[in-house]
Specification:
Helix content is about 0%, strand content about 45%. By secondary structure, the protein is mainly beta.
């Protein structure tokens, strides 16, 4: 069982930056692919970014590419999402997720169904 705890959310003005973190329990974090998803009110959960177990492969949604950066520190069992140039449409609850199987999804980011473990989420609100 893997427990994920997100932190770092908050309120920021448009154009600002925020870094959210996800700390994982257990001894096998370094072997898991990790992802960030978000869900805005009234909308479905959507993919934001993902990173392979080694950190060598990263995926981003088109809506955040060039603004957000995913990274991980396996020594600290933590994955990060650095968010720059934030827009009001980035407002959502941000969830991290773990994929212990490192599913291969045809060279593209895997969908939410490939992730087995989820955190409780952290709210990010961007004011205009």
């Amino acid at each position: 069982q893997v427990q994920l705890v997100e932190s770092g959310g908050g309120l920021v003005q448009a154009g600002g930056s925020l870094r959210v973190s996800c700390s994982a329990s257990g001894s096998y974090f370094s072997s898991y692919a990790m992802g960030w998803f978000r869900q805005a009110p009234g909308k479905e959960r959507e993919f934001v970014a993902a990173i392979s177990w080694s950190g060598s492969t990263k995926y981003y949604s088109d809506s955040v590419k060039g603004r957000f950066t995913i990274s991980r520190d396996n020594a600290k069992n933590t994955v990060y999402l650095q968010m720059n140039s934030l827009k009001p449409e980035d407002t959502a609850v941000y969830y991290c997720a773990a994929d212990p199987e490192n599913a291969y999804c045809g060279g593209r980011a895997c969908g939410a169904h490939e992730y087995d473990y989820w955190g409780q989420g952290t709210q990010v609100t961007v004011s205009s």
